[in-house]
């Protein structure tokens, strides 16, 4: 029985207030029976989780209960505390604070040390981002529309009224997903491009969201995935390891053969340019031709 899954299940119940065994089983890719055993384990640890039957039933936590951390040892509790402390700096206040507070009352966290420090996002000190996160989270929870000034990729500023459904963090970038009245469709927006944002008094009615969700694929590209094969000099082995799964890499003497399935867009071009002069595009041929054109253009622009 993995402690990480048990704890994650508990946080999901706290966050969602009610969740079914089927939803948990699908999320963790285990059987419903395994989830039931996990719930039994949490219950035996003294956590009052009860199941409500019926169409709208599911697991939920007894109202007003404060989490007892006796099922964690001191080391495990400190690791979780470090994670929560740092998530609280970059996540919406209302989403993280109640969870974080449950850990503050446990004796396991006395005499905290610095064995684990997390810096998840270089933008955590930007007050504007923090303010917008908290405001959008509040609007989302209360089903209120928000009005914002938004800068698109062409640096054009538009006024948008959206119904915020979900806050999404991909890598170190925050997005808000919701229904945009200007486009009359669901859209996803980068919080870093929001100049101003206010909550409107007008509430919105929840609509069914499109499937699949935008975060199930590349957020910034409408292109389909393409097989890309790169030959990279081993001098960049450390850098490649930061961006590419080791399973997608084959080391051949002094070269690394990297195979990607990714949309060919500006992000991919910038990634490959970051590997110059230690990279060669093996596949597809047309991408190599386009890349050479861009290299030549860059050289012309930078001739002294």
UniProtKB/TrEMBL annotation:
Keyword Transcription regulation: yes
PROSITE patterns per the UniProt record, alphabetical: HTH_DEOR_2, WYL
Pfam family, one: WCX
HTH deoR-type domain boundaries: 2-57
Assigned keywords, A-Z: Transcription, Transcription regulation
Protein name, entry field: Regulatory protein DeoR
Domain of life: Bacteria
Entry annotated with the keyword Heme: no
GO molecular function, one term: DNA-binding transcription factor activity
Organism, scientific name: Clostridium cellulovorans (strain ATCC 35296 / DSM 3052 / OCM 3 / 743B)
